[in-house]
Protein backbone atom coordinates (compact mmCIF):
# COMPACT_ATOMS: atom_id res chain seq x y z
CA UNK A 1 0.00 0.00 0.00
CA UNK A 2 2.94 2.37 0.64
CA UNK A 3 3.80 2.46 -3.04
CA UNK A 4 0.20 3.32 -4.01
CA UNK A 5 0.02 6.01 -1.34
CA UNK A 6 3.24 7.55 -2.60
CA UNK A 7 1.81 7.50 -6.12
CA UNK A 8 -1.32 9.38 -4.97
CA UNK A 9 0.78 11.97 -3.14
CA UNK A 10 3.03 12.47 -6.16
CA UNK A 11 0.12 12.76 -8.56
CA UNK A 12 -1.54 15.35 -6.32
CA UNK A 13 1.58 17.47 -5.71
CA UNK A 14 1.93 20.48 -5.72
CA UNK A 15 -1.66 20.27 -4.41
CA UNK A 16 -2.90 18.72 -1.18
CA UNK A 17 -4.81 15.46 -1.25
CA UNK A 18 -7.38 14.86 1.49
CA UNK A 19 -7.19 11.92 3.89
CA UNK A 20 -10.73 11.05 2.82
CA UNK A 21 -9.73 10.86 -0.86
CA UNK A 22 -6.80 8.61 0.00
CA UNK A 23 -9.05 6.32 2.09
CA UNK A 24 -11.49 5.95 -0.77
CA UNK A 25 -8.87 5.32 -3.43
CA UNK A 26 -6.90 2.81 -1.37
CA UNK A 27 -9.99 1.37 0.31
CA UNK A 28 -8.57 1.65 3.82
CA UNK A 29 -9.13 3.44 7.12
CA UNK A 30 -7.93 6.91 8.16
CA UNK A 31 -5.75 5.26 10.77
CA UNK A 32 -4.06 3.09 8.17
CA UNK A 33 -3.33 6.16 6.05
CA UNK A 34 -1.94 8.00 9.06
CA UNK A 35 0.37 5.07 9.89
CA UNK A 36 1.69 4.84 6.34
CA UNK A 37 2.28 8.60 6.20
CA UNK A 38 4.27 8.33 9.42
CA UNK A 39 6.39 5.54 7.90
CA UNK A 40 7.07 7.56 4.76
CA UNK A 41 8.19 10.49 6.88
CA UNK A 42 10.59 8.21 8.71
CA UNK A 43 12.02 7.16 5.36
CA UNK A 44 12.85 10.77 4.58
CA UNK A 45 9.84 12.02 2.64
CA UNK A 46 8.73 15.52 3.65
CA UNK A 47 4.95 15.41 3.96
CA UNK A 48 2.92 18.33 5.28
CA UNK A 49 -0.35 17.50 7.01
CA UNK A 50 -2.85 20.37 7.31
CA UNK A 51 -6.32 20.06 8.84
CA UNK A 52 -9.11 20.41 6.27
CA UNK A 53 -6.61 20.28 3.40
CA UNK A 54 -4.94 16.92 3.81
CA UNK A 55 -1.44 15.83 2.85
CA UNK A 56 1.16 17.50 0.63
CA UNK A 57 4.37 15.84 -0.53
CA UNK A 58 7.35 18.17 -0.97
CA UNK A 59 8.55 16.76 -4.25
CA UNK A 60 12.16 17.76 -3.76
CA UNK A 61 12.26 15.50 -0.72
CA UNK A 62 11.52 12.31 -2.61
CA UNK A 63 14.66 10.13 -2.48
CA UNK A 64 15.67 8.01 -5.44
CA UNK A 65 13.93 4.68 -4.90
CA UNK A 66 11.97 1.95 -6.59
CA UNK A 67 8.70 3.33 -5.19
CA UNK A 68 9.48 6.78 -6.54
CA UNK A 69 10.28 5.50 -10.02
CA UNK A 70 7.24 3.23 -10.04
CA UNK A 71 4.99 6.15 -9.14
CA UNK A 72 6.08 7.96 -12.30
CA UNK A 73 5.52 5.11 -14.72
CA UNK A 74 2.61 5.32 -17.10
CA UNK A 75 3.30 1.97 -18.70
CA UNK A 76 0.40 -0.20 -19.64
CA UNK A 77 1.90 -3.07 -21.59
CA UNK A 78 5.20 -4.15 -20.04
CA UNK A 79 4.50 -5.04 -16.40
CA UNK A 80 7.57 -3.32 -15.01
CA UNK A 81 8.61 -4.64 -11.64
CA UNK A 82 11.32 -2.54 -10.06
CA UNK A 83 13.96 -4.04 -7.82
CA UNK A 84 15.92 -1.23 -6.20
CA UNK A 85 19.15 -1.61 -4.26
CA UNK A 86 21.15 1.08 -2.52
CA UNK A 87 24.33 -0.68 -3.63
CA UNK A 88 25.12 -3.56 -5.99
CA UNK A 89 28.28 -4.84 -7.65
CA UNK A 90 26.43 -4.74 -10.98
CA UNK A 91 22.77 -4.32 -11.93
CA UNK A 92 23.53 -6.39 -15.01
CA UNK A 93 24.82 -9.37 -13.01
CA UNK A 94 21.90 -9.08 -10.57
CA UNK A 95 19.41 -9.08 -13.46
CA UNK A 96 21.12 -12.09 -15.06
CA UNK A 97 20.86 -13.89 -11.75
CA UNK A 98 17.16 -13.05 -11.50
CA UNK A 99 16.68 -14.27 -15.07
CA UNK A 100 18.31 -17.59 -14.21
CA UNK A 101 15.89 -17.87 -11.31
CA UNK A 102 12.94 -17.34 -13.66
CA UNK A 103 12.22 -13.60 -13.36
CA UNK A 104 9.62 -12.23 -15.77
CA UNK A 105 9.94 -9.83 -18.68
CA UNK A 106 9.78 -6.28 -17.37
CA UNK A 107 11.88 -6.89 -14.26
CA UNK A 108 14.03 -3.79 -13.76
CA UNK A 109 17.07 -3.65 -11.49
CA UNK A 110 18.16 -0.18 -10.36
CA UNK A 111 21.04 0.59 -8.00
CA UNK A 112 21.88 3.86 -6.31
CA UNK A 113 25.51 2.78 -6.31
CA UNK A 114 27.32 0.28 -8.49
CA UNK A 115 30.68 -0.97 -7.26
CA UNK A 116 31.66 -3.36 -10.05
CA UNK A 117 29.64 -2.25 -13.05
CA UNK A 118 30.50 -3.73 -16.42
CA UNK A 119 30.66 -2.28 -19.91
CA UNK A 120 31.11 -4.00 -23.25
CA UNK A 121 33.90 -6.58 -23.55
CA UNK A 122 34.28 -6.78 -19.78
CA UNK A 123 35.29 -3.14 -19.34
CA UNK A 124 34.53 -1.39 -16.06
CA UNK A 125 31.70 1.10 -15.64
CA UNK A 126 31.30 2.66 -12.23
CA UNK A 127 28.32 4.47 -10.75
CA UNK A 128 29.06 6.50 -7.62
CA UNK A 129 26.40 6.68 -4.91
CA UNK A 130 23.80 9.35 -5.32
CA UNK A 131 24.92 10.52 -8.76
CA UNK A 132 24.45 8.21 -11.72
CA UNK A 133 21.73 5.98 -13.06
CA UNK A 134 22.52 2.27 -13.26
CA UNK A 135 19.61 0.25 -14.57
CA UNK A 136 19.18 -3.20 -16.11
CA UNK A 137 15.98 -4.30 -17.80
CA UNK A 138 15.04 -7.92 -18.35
CA UNK A 139 13.33 -8.71 -21.67
CA UNK A 140 12.16 -11.93 -23.27
CA UNK A 141 11.65 -11.06 -26.92
CA UNK A 142 10.70 -13.95 -29.19
CA UNK A 143 13.26 -13.09 -31.87
CA UNK A 144 16.18 -14.94 -33.48
CA UNK A 145 19.57 -14.28 -31.93
CA UNK A 146 20.93 -12.31 -34.89
CA UNK A 147 18.41 -9.57 -34.05
CA UNK A 148 19.83 -9.06 -30.55
CA UNK A 149 22.17 -6.18 -31.53
CA UNK A 150 19.14 -4.24 -32.79
CA UNK A 151 17.82 -3.94 -29.23
CA UNK A 152 20.87 -1.80 -28.40
CA UNK A 153 20.13 0.53 -31.31
CA UNK A 154 16.45 0.86 -30.38
CA UNK A 155 17.33 1.61 -26.75
CA UNK A 156 19.73 4.30 -27.97
CA UNK A 157 16.86 5.98 -29.82
CA UNK A 158 14.66 5.83 -26.70
CA UNK A 159 17.40 7.39 -24.57
CA UNK A 160 18.04 10.18 -27.06
CA UNK A 161 14.33 11.01 -27.16
CA UNK A 162 14.24 11.35 -23.36
CA UNK A 163 17.43 13.43 -23.24
CA UNK A 164 16.24 15.76 -26.01
CA UNK A 165 12.90 16.28 -24.24
CA UNK A 166 14.79 17.69 -21.26
CA UNK A 167 16.99 19.85 -23.43
CA UNK A 168 20.19 17.92 -24.17
CA UNK A 169 21.63 17.73 -27.68
CA UNK A 170 22.59 14.08 -27.41
CA UNK A 171 23.75 11.86 -30.26
CA UNK A 172 24.33 8.16 -30.85
CA UNK A 173 27.77 6.75 -31.43
CA UNK A 174 27.28 3.36 -33.06
CA UNK A 175 26.64 0.87 -31.60
CA UNK A 176 26.15 1.52 -27.90
CA UNK A 177 27.27 4.95 -26.70
CA UNK A 178 25.42 8.22 -26.22
CA UNK A 179 27.46 11.40 -26.62
CA UNK A 180 26.94 15.05 -25.73
CA UNK A 181 29.53 17.46 -27.16
CA UNK A 182 31.47 14.41 -28.33
CA UNK A 183 31.81 13.18 -24.76
CA UNK A 184 30.26 9.97 -23.43
CA UNK A 185 27.26 10.48 -21.18
CA UNK A 186 25.70 7.03 -21.43
CA UNK A 187 26.61 3.45 -22.32
CA UNK A 188 24.31 0.60 -23.24
CA UNK A 189 25.20 -3.02 -22.54
CA UNK A 190 23.08 -5.73 -24.10
CA UNK A 191 23.66 -9.29 -22.92
CA UNK A 192 21.61 -12.38 -23.51
CA UNK A 193 20.86 -15.89 -22.47
CA UNK A 194 19.98 -17.98 -25.47
CA UNK A 195 19.68 -21.37 -27.05
CA UNK A 196 21.71 -21.42 -30.24
CA UNK A 197 18.48 -20.82 -32.17
CA UNK A 198 16.42 -18.46 -30.04
CA UNK A 199 16.79 -15.82 -27.37
CA UNK A 200 15.64 -16.72 -23.85
CA UNK A 201 16.44 -13.45 -22.11
CA UNK A 202 17.96 -10.10 -23.02
CA UNK A 203 19.41 -7.96 -20.24
CA UNK A 204 19.48 -4.37 -21.40
CA UNK A 205 21.83 -2.35 -19.23
CA UNK A 206 21.88 1.44 -19.21
CA UNK A 207 24.55 3.44 -17.40
CA UNK A 208 23.82 7.17 -17.54
CA UNK A 209 25.93 9.92 -15.98
CA UNK A 210 23.44 12.28 -14.32
CA UNK A 211 24.76 14.29 -11.38
CA UNK A 212 28.46 13.33 -11.37
CA UNK A 213 30.58 16.40 -10.70
CA UNK A 214 33.88 14.79 -11.64
CA UNK A 215 35.29 11.66 -13.25
CA UNK A 216 38.44 9.63 -12.72
CA UNK A 217 41.51 11.12 -14.40
CA UNK A 218 41.60 8.48 -17.14
CA UNK A 219 38.20 9.44 -18.58
CA UNK A 220 37.99 13.10 -17.53
CA UNK A 221 38.25 14.36 -21.11
CA UNK A 222 36.02 11.76 -22.71
CA UNK A 223 33.16 11.54 -20.17
CA UNK A 224 30.49 14.02 -19.15
CA UNK A 225 27.38 14.10 -16.96
CA UNK A 226 24.09 15.88 -17.60
CA UNK A 227 24.68 18.04 -14.55
CA UNK A 228 28.13 19.17 -15.73
CA UNK A 229 26.47 20.49 -18.88
CA UNK A 230 23.41 22.32 -17.57
CA UNK A 231 24.90 23.22 -14.15
CA UNK A 232 21.96 21.94 -12.11
CA UNK A 233 21.01 18.73 -10.42
CA UNK A 234 18.55 16.46 -12.21
CA UNK A 235 16.04 13.96 -10.81
CA UNK A 236 17.21 10.42 -11.47
CA UNK A 237 13.68 9.31 -10.60
CA UNK A 238 12.25 11.35 -13.47
CA UNK A 239 14.91 10.19 -15.90
CA UNK A 240 14.61 6.51 -14.98
CA UNK A 241 10.82 6.61 -15.28
CA UNK A 242 11.06 8.62 -18.51
CA UNK A 243 13.38 6.02 -20.03
CA UNK A 244 11.13 3.13 -19.02
CA UNK A 245 8.02 4.90 -20.36
CA UNK A 246 9.69 5.76 -23.66
CA UNK A 247 11.33 2.37 -24.13
CA UNK A 248 8.10 0.49 -23.50
CA UNK A 249 6.50 2.00 -26.59
CA UNK A 250 9.62 1.62 -28.71
CA UNK A 251 10.07 -2.01 -27.67
CA UNK A 252 6.53 -2.88 -28.78
CA UNK A 253 7.15 -1.26 -32.14
CA UNK A 254 10.49 -3.08 -32.45
CA UNK A 255 8.83 -6.46 -31.80
CA UNK A 256 6.32 -5.74 -34.56
CA UNK A 257 8.57 -4.14 -37.16
CA UNK A 258 12.24 -4.73 -36.13
CA UNK A 259 14.90 -2.03 -36.33
CA UNK A 260 13.74 -0.85 -39.76
CA UNK A 261 10.98 1.18 -38.05
CA UNK A 262 13.66 3.13 -36.17
CA UNK A 263 16.18 3.55 -38.96
CA UNK A 264 15.37 7.13 -39.98
CA UNK A 265 15.17 8.33 -36.37
CA UNK A 266 18.44 6.61 -35.66
CA UNK A 267 20.06 8.29 -38.67
CA UNK A 268 18.78 11.67 -37.48
CA UNK A 269 20.33 11.11 -34.04
CA UNK A 270 23.58 9.59 -35.29
CA UNK A 271 27.01 11.00 -34.44
CA UNK A 272 28.60 8.36 -36.67
CA UNK A 273 27.10 8.65 -40.16
CA UNK A 274 28.91 10.81 -42.73
CA UNK A 275 31.91 11.04 -40.42
CA UNK A 276 35.46 9.82 -40.92
CA UNK A 277 35.92 6.86 -38.65
CA UNK A 278 38.29 4.02 -37.93
CA UNK A 279 37.44 0.58 -36.62
CA UNK A 280 39.31 -2.64 -35.92
CA UNK A 281 37.66 -5.29 -38.09
CA UNK A 282 38.91 -8.88 -38.37
CA UNK A 283 42.22 -7.80 -36.81
CA UNK A 284 42.68 -5.12 -39.44
CA UNK A 285 42.27 -1.37 -38.92
CA UNK A 286 39.89 0.20 -41.41
CA UNK A 287 39.92 3.95 -42.06
CA UNK A 288 37.00 5.36 -43.99
CA UNK A 289 33.63 7.06 -43.93
CA UNK A 290 30.56 5.64 -42.18
CA UNK A 291 28.04 5.92 -45.02
CA UNK A 292 24.90 4.11 -43.89
CA UNK A 293 23.19 1.73 -41.52
CA UNK A 294 21.12 -1.18 -42.78
CA UNK A 295 17.64 -2.26 -41.71
CA UNK A 296 19.44 -4.89 -39.63
CA UNK A 297 21.60 -2.31 -37.84
CA UNK A 298 24.80 -3.14 -39.72
CA UNK A 299 27.11 -0.17 -40.28
CA UNK A 300 28.59 0.29 -43.75
CA UNK A 301 32.02 1.92 -44.00
CA UNK A 302 33.66 2.87 -47.30
CA UNK A 303 37.43 2.89 -46.94
CA UNK A 304 39.91 5.18 -48.67
CA UNK A 305 40.22 2.85 -51.65
CA UNK A 306 36.45 2.85 -52.13
CA UNK A 307 35.93 -0.64 -50.77
CA UNK A 308 32.75 -1.28 -48.71
CA UNK A 309 32.89 -2.99 -45.31
CA UNK A 310 29.87 -4.26 -43.37
CA UNK A 311 30.58 -3.85 -39.65
CA UNK A 312 28.46 -6.05 -37.35
CA UNK A 313 30.11 -5.04 -34.09
CA UNK A 314 33.13 -3.21 -32.78
CA UNK A 315 34.44 0.04 -31.38
CA UNK A 316 34.31 2.98 -33.74
CA UNK A 317 36.65 5.92 -33.38
CA UNK A 318 35.28 9.17 -34.82
CA UNK A 319 37.86 11.53 -36.36
CA UNK B 1 42.66 -35.19 0.72
CA UNK B 2 39.69 -37.63 0.63
CA UNK B 3 39.41 -37.24 -3.12
CA UNK B 4 43.11 -37.99 -3.64
CA UNK B 5 42.91 -41.02 -1.34
CA UNK B 6 39.93 -42.35 -3.27
CA UNK B 7 41.86 -41.86 -6.50
CA UNK B 8 44.79 -43.89 -5.16
CA UNK B 9 42.49 -46.70 -4.00
CA UNK B 10 40.72 -46.76 -7.37
CA UNK B 11 43.95 -46.79 -9.33
CA UNK B 12 45.30 -49.65 -7.21
CA UNK B 13 42.14 -51.81 -7.36
CA UNK B 14 41.84 -54.78 -7.79
CA UNK B 15 45.18 -54.78 -5.94
CA UNK B 16 45.90 -53.67 -2.39
CA UNK B 17 47.78 -50.46 -1.73
CA UNK B 18 49.90 -50.22 1.41
CA UNK B 19 49.31 -47.62 4.08
CA UNK B 20 52.96 -46.65 3.69
CA UNK B 21 52.54 -45.98 -0.04
CA UNK B 22 49.49 -43.82 0.66
CA UNK B 23 51.35 -41.84 3.32
CA UNK B 24 54.19 -41.15 0.93
CA UNK B 25 52.01 -40.14 -1.98
CA UNK B 26 49.73 -37.90 0.08
CA UNK B 27 52.53 -36.70 2.36
CA UNK B 28 50.60 -37.43 5.55
CA UNK B 29 50.68 -39.63 8.65
CA UNK B 30 49.39 -43.20 9.07
CA UNK B 31 46.83 -41.89 11.49
CA UNK B 32 45.52 -39.37 8.96
CA UNK B 33 45.14 -42.16 6.39
CA UNK B 34 43.34 -44.33 8.89
CA UNK B 35 40.89 -41.51 9.73
CA UNK B 36 40.12 -40.82 6.10
CA UNK B 37 39.60 -44.51 5.38
CA UNK B 38 37.14 -44.65 8.27
CA UNK B 39 35.25 -41.68 6.82
CA UNK B 40 35.07 -43.26 3.38
CA UNK B 41 33.67 -46.43 4.93
CA UNK B 42 31.01 -44.39 6.66
CA UNK B 43 30.08 -42.89 3.30
CA UNK B 44 29.41 -46.35 1.93
CA UNK B 45 32.68 -47.39 0.31
CA UNK B 46 33.66 -51.00 1.01
CA UNK B 47 37.34 -50.98 1.89
CA UNK B 48 39.18 -54.06 3.10
CA UNK B 49 42.14 -53.48 5.42
CA UNK B 50 44.58 -56.40 5.75
CA UNK B 51 47.79 -56.33 7.79
CA UNK B 52 50.95 -56.36 5.63
CA UNK B 53 48.89 -55.85 2.46
CA UNK B 54 47.16 -52.53 3.04
CA UNK B 55 43.82 -51.33 1.72
CA UNK B 56 41.60 -52.64 -1.08
CA UNK B 57 38.59 -50.82 -2.49
CA UNK B 58 35.74 -53.04 -3.67
CA UNK B 59 35.02 -51.20 -6.88
CA UNK B 60 31.40 -52.24 -7.06
CA UNK B 61 30.83 -50.39 -3.80
CA UNK B 62 31.82 -46.98 -5.14
CA UNK B 63 28.68 -44.83 -5.20
CA UNK B 64 28.11 -42.31 -7.99
CA UNK B 65 29.73 -39.13 -6.76
CA UNK B 66 31.89 -36.20 -7.77
CA UNK B 67 34.92 -37.83 -6.11
CA UNK B 68 34.37 -41.04 -8.00
CA UNK B 69 34.06 -39.29 -11.38
CA UNK B 70 37.05 -37.08 -10.67
CA UNK B 71 39.18 -40.11 -9.84
CA UNK B 72 38.56 -41.46 -13.35
CA UNK B 73 39.45 -38.31 -15.25
CA UNK B 74 42.67 -38.23 -17.19
CA UNK B 75 42.19 -34.69 -18.42
CA UNK B 76 45.19 -32.47 -18.64
CA UNK B 77 43.94 -29.31 -20.36
CA UNK B 78 40.45 -28.42 -19.17
CA UNK B 79 40.62 -28.04 -15.38
CA UNK B 80 37.39 -29.90 -14.68
CA UNK B 81 35.88 -29.02 -11.34
CA UNK B 82 32.98 -31.29 -10.48
CA UNK B 83 30.03 -30.08 -8.44
CA UNK B 84 27.90 -33.06 -7.50
CA UNK B 85 24.42 -32.92 -6.00
CA UNK B 86 22.23 -35.80 -4.95
CA UNK B 87 19.21 -33.87 -6.25
CA UNK B 88 18.73 -30.68 -8.30
CA UNK B 89 15.84 -29.15 -10.19
CA UNK B 90 18.14 -28.82 -13.21
CA UNK B 91 21.90 -29.16 -13.66
CA UNK B 92 21.58 -26.67 -16.52
CA UNK B 93 20.00 -23.98 -14.34
CA UNK B 94 22.53 -24.63 -11.58
CA UNK B 95 25.41 -24.26 -14.06
CA UNK B 96 23.92 -21.04 -15.46
CA UNK B 97 23.68 -19.71 -11.92
CA UNK B 98 27.32 -20.61 -11.28
CA UNK B 99 28.29 -18.93 -14.55
CA UNK B 100 26.51 -15.74 -13.49
CA UNK B 101 28.50 -15.89 -10.28
CA UNK B 102 31.75 -16.13 -12.21
CA UNK B 103 32.47 -19.88 -12.32
CA UNK B 104 35.40 -20.94 -14.51
CA UNK B 105 35.52 -22.93 -17.73
CA UNK B 106 35.53 -26.62 -16.91
CA UNK B 107 33.01 -26.41 -14.07
CA UNK B 108 30.82 -29.53 -14.30
CA UNK B 109 27.50 -29.95 -12.53
CA UNK B 110 26.28 -33.51 -12.06
CA UNK B 111 23.11 -34.57 -10.25
CA UNK B 112 22.05 -38.03 -9.15
CA UNK B 113 18.44 -36.94 -9.52
CA UNK B 114 16.95 -34.14 -11.58
CA UNK B 115 13.44 -33.03 -10.66
CA UNK B 116 12.85 -30.26 -13.21
CA UNK B 117 15.28 -30.96 -16.02
CA UNK B 118 14.89 -29.06 -19.26
CA UNK B 119 15.24 -30.02 -22.89
CA UNK B 120 15.27 -27.84 -26.00
CA UNK B 121 12.51 -25.21 -26.33
CA UNK B 122 11.62 -25.54 -22.66
CA UNK B 123 10.58 -29.18 -22.86
CA UNK B 124 10.87 -31.38 -19.78
CA UNK B 125 13.64 -33.94 -19.32
CA UNK B 126 13.56 -35.96 -16.14
CA UNK B 127 16.32 -37.98 -14.51
CA UNK B 128 15.17 -40.40 -11.83
CA UNK B 129 17.40 -40.96 -8.81
CA UNK B 130 20.07 -43.59 -9.23
CA UNK B 131 19.44 -44.28 -12.90
CA UNK B 132 20.33 -41.58 -15.43
CA UNK B 133 23.19 -39.22 -16.05
CA UNK B 134 22.40 -35.49 -15.85
CA UNK B 135 25.45 -33.34 -16.45
CA UNK B 136 26.06 -29.72 -17.43
CA UNK B 137 29.45 -28.44 -18.48
CA UNK B 138 30.43 -24.79 -18.40
CA UNK B 139 32.60 -23.57 -21.29
CA UNK B 140 33.96 -20.18 -22.26
CA UNK B 141 35.00 -20.54 -25.89
CA UNK B 142 36.25 -17.39 -27.58
CA UNK B 143 34.10 -17.85 -30.69
CA UNK B 144 31.41 -15.75 -32.42
CA UNK B 145 27.84 -16.59 -31.48
CA UNK B 146 26.94 -18.13 -34.85
CA UNK B 147 29.34 -20.99 -34.03
CA UNK B 148 27.43 -21.95 -30.88
CA UNK B 149 25.29 -24.64 -32.56
CA UNK B 150 28.48 -26.43 -33.64
CA UNK B 151 29.27 -27.23 -29.99
CA UNK B 152 26.16 -29.42 -29.91
CA UNK B 153 27.33 -31.34 -32.97
CA UNK B 154 30.83 -31.83 -31.58
CA UNK B 155 29.45 -33.06 -28.25
CA UNK B 156 27.26 -35.53 -30.15
CA UNK B 157 30.38 -36.97 -31.80
CA UNK B 158 32.12 -37.29 -28.40
CA UNK B 159 29.11 -39.07 -26.91
CA UNK B 160 28.86 -41.51 -29.82
CA UNK B 161 32.56 -42.36 -29.51
CA UNK B 162 32.10 -43.23 -25.82
CA UNK B 163 28.94 -45.25 -26.44
CA UNK B 164 30.53 -47.19 -29.32
CA UNK B 165 33.59 -48.01 -27.17
CA UNK B 166 31.29 -49.78 -24.70
CA UNK B 167 29.44 -51.59 -27.44
CA UNK B 168 26.37 -49.54 -28.36
CA UNK B 169 25.46 -48.85 -31.98
CA UNK B 170 24.42 -45.26 -31.34
CA UNK B 171 23.67 -42.66 -34.00
CA UNK B 172 23.16 -38.89 -34.16
CA UNK B 173 19.80 -37.39 -35.02
CA UNK B 174 20.51 -33.80 -36.09
CA UNK B 175 20.92 -31.56 -34.21
CA UNK B 176 20.89 -32.72 -30.60
CA UNK B 177 19.62 -36.27 -30.05
CA UNK B 178 21.42 -39.59 -29.78
CA UNK B 179 19.47 -42.66 -30.88
CA UNK B 180 19.88 -46.39 -30.44
CA UNK B 181 17.56 -48.58 -32.53
CA UNK B 182 15.78 -45.36 -33.55
CA UNK B 183 14.92 -44.62 -29.92
CA UNK B 184 16.24 -41.67 -27.98
CA UNK B 185 18.90 -42.50 -25.41
CA UNK B 186 20.45 -39.06 -24.96
CA UNK B 187 19.65 -35.40 -25.47
CA UNK B 188 22.04 -32.46 -25.67
CA UNK B 189 21.02 -28.96 -24.60
CA UNK B 190 23.31 -26.07 -25.47
CA UNK B 191 22.55 -22.71 -23.91
CA UNK B 192 24.64 -19.60 -23.79
CA UNK B 193 25.21 -16.27 -22.17
CA UNK B 194 26.47 -13.80 -24.73
CA UNK B 195 26.96 -10.23 -25.77
CA UNK B 196 25.41 -9.72 -29.18
CA UNK B 197 28.89 -10.10 -30.68
CA UNK B 198 30.64 -12.74 -28.62
CA UNK B 199 29.93 -15.72 -26.40
CA UNK B 200 30.55 -15.32 -22.69
CA UNK B 201 29.54 -18.78 -21.54
CA UNK B 202 28.20 -21.96 -23.07
CA UNK B 203 26.38 -24.43 -20.86
CA UNK B 204 26.51 -27.84 -22.49
CA UNK B 205 23.90 -30.11 -20.98
CA UNK B 206 23.87 -33.87 -21.48
CA UNK B 207 21.00 -36.06 -20.36
CA UNK B 208 21.77 -39.74 -20.90
CA UNK B 209 19.48 -42.65 -20.05
CA UNK B 210 21.72 -45.25 -18.39
CA UNK B 211 20.01 -47.63 -15.97
CA UNK B 212 16.34 -46.66 -16.35
CA UNK B 213 14.17 -49.76 -16.39
CA UNK B 214 11.02 -48.01 -17.56
CA UNK B 215 9.83 -44.68 -18.92
CA UNK B 216 6.62 -42.69 -18.59
CA UNK B 217 3.84 -43.93 -20.86
CA UNK B 218 4.11 -40.93 -23.22
CA UNK B 219 7.69 -41.71 -24.26
CA UNK B 220 7.79 -45.47 -23.71
CA UNK B 221 8.05 -46.22 -27.42
CA UNK B 222 10.46 -43.44 -28.30
CA UNK B 223 12.91 -43.61 -25.38
CA UNK B 224 15.43 -46.23 -24.35
CA UNK B 225 18.20 -46.66 -21.78
CA UNK B 226 21.56 -48.37 -22.19
CA UNK B 227 20.55 -50.91 -19.56
CA UNK B 228 17.33 -51.84 -21.37
CA UNK B 229 19.44 -52.72 -24.41
CA UNK B 230 22.28 -54.75 -22.95
CA UNK B 231 20.34 -56.08 -19.93
CA UNK B 232 22.94 -55.14 -17.33
CA UNK B 233 23.63 -52.21 -15.10
CA UNK B 234 26.30 -49.74 -16.20
CA UNK B 235 28.55 -47.50 -14.14
CA UNK B 236 27.47 -43.87 -14.45
CA UNK B 237 30.82 -42.95 -12.94
CA UNK B 238 32.67 -44.60 -15.83
CA UNK B 239 30.38 -43.08 -18.44
CA UNK B 240 30.51 -39.56 -17.01
CA UNK B 241 34.30 -39.66 -16.78
CA UNK B 242 34.54 -41.20 -20.23
CA UNK B 243 32.43 -38.40 -21.70
CA UNK B 244 34.50 -35.69 -20.01
CA UNK B 245 37.76 -37.30 -21.12
CA UNK B 246 36.59 -37.68 -24.70
CA UNK B 247 35.01 -34.24 -24.94
CA UNK B 248 38.10 -32.50 -23.60
CA UNK B 249 40.15 -33.61 -26.60
CA UNK B 250 37.36 -32.89 -29.08
CA UNK B 251 36.74 -29.43 -27.63
CA UNK B 252 40.40 -28.45 -28.09
CA UNK B 253 40.27 -29.60 -31.71
CA UNK B 254 37.00 -27.71 -32.23
CA UNK B 255 38.51 -24.48 -30.90
CA UNK B 256 41.40 -24.84 -33.34
CA UNK B 257 39.55 -26.06 -36.42
CA UNK B 258 35.78 -25.56 -35.86
CA UNK B 259 33.20 -28.18 -36.80
CA UNK B 260 34.82 -28.89 -40.15
CA UNK B 261 37.34 -31.15 -38.37
CA UNK B 262 34.42 -33.32 -37.17
CA UNK B 263 32.33 -33.31 -40.33
CA UNK B 264 33.32 -36.72 -41.71
CA UNK B 265 33.00 -38.42 -38.29
CA UNK B 266 29.63 -36.76 -37.82
CA UNK B 267 28.48 -38.02 -41.24
CA UNK B 268 29.60 -41.54 -40.36
CA UNK B 269 27.56 -41.42 -37.12
CA UNK B 270 24.53 -39.73 -38.59
CA UNK B 271 21.02 -41.18 -38.43
CA UNK B 272 19.74 -38.25 -40.49
CA UNK B 273 21.73 -38.07 -43.74
CA UNK B 274 20.31 -39.83 -46.81
CA UNK B 275 17.01 -40.32 -45.00
CA UNK B 276 13.57 -39.01 -45.79
CA UNK B 277 12.76 -36.38 -43.24
CA UNK B 278 10.30 -33.62 -42.47
CA UNK B 279 10.94 -30.43 -40.61
CA UNK B 280 8.97 -27.32 -39.73
CA UNK B 281 10.86 -24.42 -41.28
CA UNK B 282 9.64 -20.80 -41.23
CA UNK B 283 6.17 -22.03 -40.32
CA UNK B 284 6.10 -24.34 -43.32
CA UNK B 285 6.47 -28.13 -43.27
CA UNK B 286 9.19 -29.36 -45.59
CA UNK B 287 9.28 -32.99 -46.74
CA UNK B 288 12.44 -34.16 -48.42
CA UNK B 289 15.77 -35.89 -48.13
CA UNK B 290 18.57 -34.77 -45.81
CA UNK B 291 21.46 -34.70 -48.26
CA UNK B 292 24.40 -33.09 -46.46
CA UNK B 293 25.74 -31.09 -43.57
CA UNK B 294 27.96 -28.06 -44.12
CA UNK B 295 31.24 -27.16 -42.43
CA UNK B 296 29.15 -24.83 -40.29
CA UNK B 297 26.76 -27.60 -39.19
CA UNK B 298 23.86 -26.48 -41.36
CA UNK B 299 21.67 -29.31 -42.65
CA UNK B 300 20.70 -29.29 -46.32
CA UNK B 301 17.35 -30.81 -47.27
CA UNK B 302 16.20 -31.28 -50.87
CA UNK B 303 12.43 -31.30 -51.05
CA UNK B 304 10.22 -33.31 -53.39
CA UNK B 305 10.31 -30.56 -56.05
CA UNK B 306 14.12 -30.57 -55.98
CA UNK B 307 14.43 -27.30 -54.10
CA UNK B 308 17.26 -26.99 -51.56
CA UNK B 309 16.64 -25.77 -48.00
CA UNK B 310 19.35 -24.81 -45.49
CA UNK B 311 18.11 -25.70 -42.01
CA UNK B 312 19.87 -23.89 -39.16
CA UNK B 313 17.79 -25.32 -36.35
CA UNK B 314 14.63 -27.26 -35.72
CA UNK B 315 13.17 -30.65 -34.97
CA UNK B 316 13.65 -33.24 -37.66
CA UNK B 317 11.31 -36.17 -38.05
CA UNK B 318 12.87 -39.21 -39.73
CA UNK B 319 10.53 -41.29 -41.89
TrEMBL record, chains A, B:
Signal peptide: none annotated. Pfam families: BPL_C (PF02237), BPL_LplA_LipB (PF03099), HTH_11 (PF08279). It comes from the Bacteria. One of its GO terms (molecular function) is transferase activity. GO terms for cellular component: cytoplasm. Belongs to the biotin--protein ligase family. This is Bifunctional ligase/repressor BirA. It comes from Alkalicoccus daliensis. The lineage of its organism: Bacteria, Bacillati, Bacillota, Bacilli, Bacillales. The gene is birA.
Amino acid sequence: MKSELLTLLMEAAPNYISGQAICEKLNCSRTAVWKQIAQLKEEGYEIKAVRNKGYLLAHSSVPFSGHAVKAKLNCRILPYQIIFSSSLPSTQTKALRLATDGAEEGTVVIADQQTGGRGRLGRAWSTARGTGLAMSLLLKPDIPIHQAPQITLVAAVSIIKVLRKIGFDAKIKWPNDILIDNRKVCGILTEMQADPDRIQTIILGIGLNVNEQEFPEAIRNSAVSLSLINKEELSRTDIAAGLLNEFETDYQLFLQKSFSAFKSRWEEYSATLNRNVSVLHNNQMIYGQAVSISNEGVLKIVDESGKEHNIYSGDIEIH
